[in-house]
């Protein structure tokens, strides 16, 4: 079991973020006899998943919805699947947009390199 500080350091996030996730019921850590938060390996795995969802622009309310569905049990599997499929489609759209933008940037960079190269040739 890990303390809130250990988990924050391990995952590269703040203790404030962990408390926020708890407040939003995205994660529900265990407590020791003094009321201090304790995190298990399964909590850490869950948090890693949550952080990946955040990195891929899933809104907190959707993560919260997914977490709530998970705690409801197996009968929510279809709803969880739908939520993840929808998010995967969003990621695929982001990837397509990034690829198109990357191509445009490559063209602009090539153009400017050519312009600069030609200016340097003329100056010589």
Automatic annotation (TrEMBL):
SMART domains: HTH_MERR. CDD domains: HTH_YyaN. Pfam families: MerR_1. The keyword DNA-binding applies. PROSITE patterns: HTH_MERR_1, HTH_MERR_2. Residues 81-115 form a coiled coil. Residues 1-69 form the HTH merR-type domain. This is MerR family transcriptional regulator. The keyword Cell membrane does not apply. Keywords: Coiled coil, DNA-binding.
